[in-house]
Records
---
Amino acid sequence: MQFSHELIVPETGFPFKIFIFEGSTGNYHRDRHWHRSIEIFAVSGGELEFYIDDRKWHLEAGDFMIVNSNEVHSIDSPLQNETIVLQIPLKMFEDYFTGEQFIWFSHEPGRRDERFMELLKELYQVYSSGKYGYDMKSKSIFYQIMYLLVKDYRLTEVDDDSVRKNKNLNKLSAITSYIKENYTGDMTLEEVARIFDYSPNYLSRMFRKYAGITFKSYVQSIRLRYAVKDLESGRYGVTEAALRNGFSGSKALARAFQKKYGMLPGRYKMRTVGTELKAAGKR
């Protein structure tokens, strides 16, 4: 099963990022992925299905889920819901690390759940209002949330397997971040292994074990993702989108596109542009 690393960047001037879940309209699935930040999903209306490793959680209004750093998770949102997402960089907890840049939070309900949910809702309301002084008040509420996290939900005893997996995903996060920054150029397993001081065989095994995908397939998936964005923008043809994103040419992009989406990129572009033109005509 393939899963990917997601890079999270806080809002400018704030030690966090907060927003309404992108799957709030329903009919949504987010594939398995991980990130170094702590992520909290707070459901205030509707419901969604959460998967962490091999365990399934059903979240309803009033429930929330704390996703730990480097914890592989996926989300199913078949129905409409109202879910607040709060993302916190791992470095915010560095004074509470148990070692190896590691901190772990419980998924089980705690005695302060009701207060925790109230603070999450209040933070989103204050932050999104943008009213005078909202920045100071938002940070004040945020640090109350931080306090409850380390006081009521932090685990001080964690099994060795979790620590070991976290360390390996930390290593892989650095590598996938490098790939996302350099995917447009030539990129080989041997070159990336040399940069990170690994043997090619070790790096290859790391990708297969912890990302569930080969190194070559991962690089291609990143290139394809950005090529799709170029096609959707309408500013680039198929060959331009291919060359801009590290493919050797239009044929290489076409093969990857056909395998992933079941159609050629030219047809996808025509369908996307046609849909946008129809929508513009209705306005």
Note: The beta strands are 4-5, 17-20, 28-34, 38-52, 55-60, 64-67, 73-77, 81-88, 104-105, 154-155.
---
Amino acid sequence: MSVSNKRLLIAAELLGHINSVADIGTDHAFLPIHLIKEGIAKKVIACDIAEGPLSVAKSNLVKYGLADKIELRLANGLLGLKPNEVEAITILGMGGETIADILTDSPWVKNPEITLILQPMSCDDRLREYLYKEGFEIITEVGVESQNRFYTVMKVVFSGDLPQVGREYKYIGKLLDNPNYAAITFVKNRINSMKNCMREIETVERKQELYNELKIAVEIIEKTLNFNGR
């Protein structure tokens, strides 16, 4: 099987070669199958909260002869895992707030030895804000286009530090460190949405603090884009 979903391919690329990984919300287990078949991971635990997707995942494992290579678990978030059971965790295709809730429910993930690969479908700004406040460091972010939509895939580790970051950080993270087409488009779309929000709240007195934050962040982001010749 070759994975065509770019979100999954980028996640696998950021993961790199690793001994053990848990895929949370695995759905049909396409990512775990890819990780084993390509020799990226030696052990994969595929978790999902619903029995339906796991049933399909089981059929896929049998189809590709991997029923003895990938373990399926019915579990909510990370609650089906033991601390230190895996070296990496992938959580893809969920809302940013949901991902944050999953990490909150299992505080043992605050371990510098565990790599997190996160791909929020929405609310990436809230996820970045959560990660920063909880001491997680975004090592890298890669923009990706999938089905005419633009997303970010993050490689994250726990450091416990709270380094100085600009007001733009929660909105675009480190996407402009890897300014591919998808990242640039993602950032431009974010600027437009921020400006729309500013227009809506410009005359709302109780939201002036938010307006000022957005204004400063947009100015920084636009300056960075112009600096990169975009």
Note: DSSP finds eight helices and seven strands in the chain.
